[in-house]
Structure formats: C-alpha cells, structure tokens
Amino acid sequence: MILAPYPIGTAGRPWGEAEIAQWRAGQRRRRSYADDVLRAIDGLRGRFDVEQYGELDYDGESFPLLAIRNRERSDALPVALVTGGVHGYETSGVHGALQFVDRHMADYAGRLDVVVVPCVSPWAYERIHRWNALALDPNRSFRAGTPAPESAALLRLVAPLRGRVLVHVDLHETTDSDETEFRPALAARDGKEYAPDAIPDGFYLVDDTTNPQPDFQRAIIEAVAKVTHIAPADPQGCIIGSPLVSPGVIEYAFVELGLCAGISGAKYTTTTEVYPDSPRATPQQCNDAQAAAVRAAFDYALAHRDD
C-alpha cells in the first residue's frame, strides 16, 4: 500500500503547536457522547452506582467522566476493573463495556468490587479518533505527570484501589484506519518515516511482558473463540510486529509504554483487540466478544485468586 504524504507538517520534522492546531481544526464531531454513552449510563443508574471521577474541558466543550460500580461493595472484596474507549474510535470497547454492565455485571455482586469505565476519552469518541484534542495518545500516557487529562483522571480514580485490584481488562480494537490514518499521522507528528504493517483479521490479546499470565490469556481466547474468530499470525509469526507467544496472544511492556492495562498493579491484566472491519464480524459480534472477554477474565481471576 502506497500512501500520499501526510497532509500536515514537514517530512522528518516533528509537529509543533501550529501543526497540532491545524490537525485539531480538521477534526469534526461525528457522533454524540451524550446520546450514545451518557444516555446508556443513565439507564443503568437504577441497578448500579455511577460515579463522576473527573471532567474534560476542551475549548468550552465539557465531558463528564463516569465510572459504574456495583452497589454491594466491601473493602474485603477484590476489585475488578474494566476500561473502554481509551482510544475513542474503538467503538466496541465502549459499547462492549456497557453491554457487560447491562447483562452480566450483577452476576459478580458480592464476589468482586467491579469498576467499569466505559469511555475514557469522550472527545475522541465523538471525533472517532485515536488521539485526544492535544494530539496525544492516551494509551501511551498513563504515567506520573502525564499531559493527557483523560489518563490523569483515570490514574486518580484507580490510585486508591491499587493493592486490591485482582483483574483489569482494557477493551480495544485494531481497525483498518490504523493503517490509513492513525499510524501515518503518528509518524508525521513525530517526524518519523511511516512503515506500513498488516492489520490482523480477528480477535487477539496483549499480555504484559513483565507479568505474563499465559493460562489467563488462554482462558479468554477460548471463551471469545465461541463468539468470533481469533486472529492468526502473519507469515513472520507476528501480530502487528510482535511475535505470537500463544494462539491469539502477543506481549507488550504495559507500564514502560504507559498503557492503560498497566495502571492497576493487578495480578491478571490484558488488553483486548477486536477487528471490526472484518467481513466475518458484525458490530454486535464485536460487542459480544468484548463482553465475553470480560466474563472469562473475571471467572478465571476468581477461580485462581489464591494461586
């Protein structure tokens, strides 16, 4: 695939404030966080507690940041954390999280203190974009002193829970637009050369190189395989440039890379990756896959919490 040079910036030179402003001016609101997400959360308030843990303000646009929790809470229970919409364009991460809450979260009452943050990056959700309004990737920004307000707010929410979090599932997608827009934009922003890669067709997981849990990942893959297909390795034995460590599983260094899945200190952590552009998957299958991944992760963590 040969792409034209990215239309913002000068090749080989990182963006400055002018280029970021130009990029931001080109972003258009394409869907509604209030209609799609806040309204859905309002429909859950009769069964669950909803907590506002922060608020974003970009040029006068305000976005309340909400977490959903089960009501049967106790400091004696382990915490189970679900995050979605860290990348706002990854739709099933948001709606899969909401589906899990609606259909399955009550099943864990009295066994887990469940915290679900369905949309970490609402500005990006509305623009169907990976970055926030500052042209920052929130999922490379989970570290002390972060300039990404979405990441900072979530870090504050999770901080008092650290030490109690047993399992954390971070819901993502890998889309065709990663190659047509987001990775070329990243290369342009950083003044680097863009190196094309293949998009894997199917669901896969990312484990933590510093805390690998292969049996945990395998349990999730087996559950999701009943819902949608699992991504195969490419001819080099990789998925998005990383070697496959087991069917449907690669590894990243969560904390070192500033990834959301590294914020909790949980024993069991994973990042899901659904492929919504596959001709073999529907939007509902993608939501179902995310919800199935969360359920399998929670069930495994509960069964093996003392291992």
TrEMBL record:
<feature type="domain" description="Peptidase M14">
    <location>
        <begin position="29"/>
        <end position="307"/>
    </location>
</feature>
<keyword id="KW-0645">Protease</keyword>
<dbReference type="GO" id="GO:0008270">
    <property type="term" value="F:zinc ion binding"/>
</dbReference>
<protein>
    <submittedName>
        <fullName>M14 family metallocarboxypeptidase</fullName>
    </submittedName>
</protein>
<keyword id="KW-0378">Hydrolase</keyword>
<keyword id="KW-0121">Carboxypeptidase</keyword>
<dbReference type="GO" id="GO:0004181">
    <property type="term" value="F:metallocarboxypeptidase activity"/>
</dbReference>
<dbReference type="InterPro" id="IPR000834">
    <property type="entry name" value="Peptidase_M14"/>
</dbReference>
<comment type="similarity">
    <text>Belongs to the peptidase M14 family.</text>
</comment>
<dbReference type="GO" id="GO:0006508">
    <property type="term" value="P:proteolysis"/>
</dbReference>
